[in-house]
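Narrative of activities, Objective 1.

The group set out to show that a structural description can be obtained from nothing but a protein's sequence at a throughput compatible with the screening campaign. Below is one input-output pair from the validation batch, recorded exactly as produced.
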Amino acid sequence: MARKETAADAANPGRLKQIALTYKMTRRADKKIGLVLAAVGIVTFGVFLAIGFLIGHPIYAGILGLLLAFLATAIVFGRRAERAAFGQMEGQPGAAAAVLDNIGRGWTTTPAVAMNRNQDVVHRAVGKAGIVLVAEGNPSRVKSLLAAEKKKMNRIVADVPVHDLVVGTGEGQVELKKLRTTMLKLPRVLTGPQVTATNDRLRALGDLMSNMPLPKGPMPKGMRMPKGGGPKAR
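Output recorded for this entry:
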């Protein structure tokens, strides 16, 4: 019993410290966060307290108003903190991967399934909407990356829909802060077992490629590469 209490006491400071750090981070980008949270809490509590006086139960309404004020403050704080975090991540390499990692249950994400020398990158997410390829980088350069990866997905899992998104603020692109919402709005066309089967097929392909033996040492004398730079796909 004593051990459980000690563990709980040790965990509480950690949570409070995390909340404090989140608040400081948010305040750097959102200077009015303190005033907004205070206003939300006071207004919510005030409304319920006023209702309590009108119906003759100010104590009960006050307690309920206090709980709901805390809940409303927490919700507003979470949303503004998320918005501030997206604002700081915007334009940084790997920002889209960070959003995909926190998209929620039912999605399996694989970062950087394709990349070029300019560090334009394509990430992959698999869920009930099918396969979603998310690219970040120069819009003109990522098109070829997306096209090649989409062609590969259509060849491997032809029965699964493949969507492609480009993260950015330009026309036809998806803003980082709207990426999660955009993906969750995609129509669900796969069942749970189909999602699992798709992930297994993609995972098997990855294992096959990583375990493929490569010849070591220099190319034998007299051996020539075929025209076109390599063997053609059949």
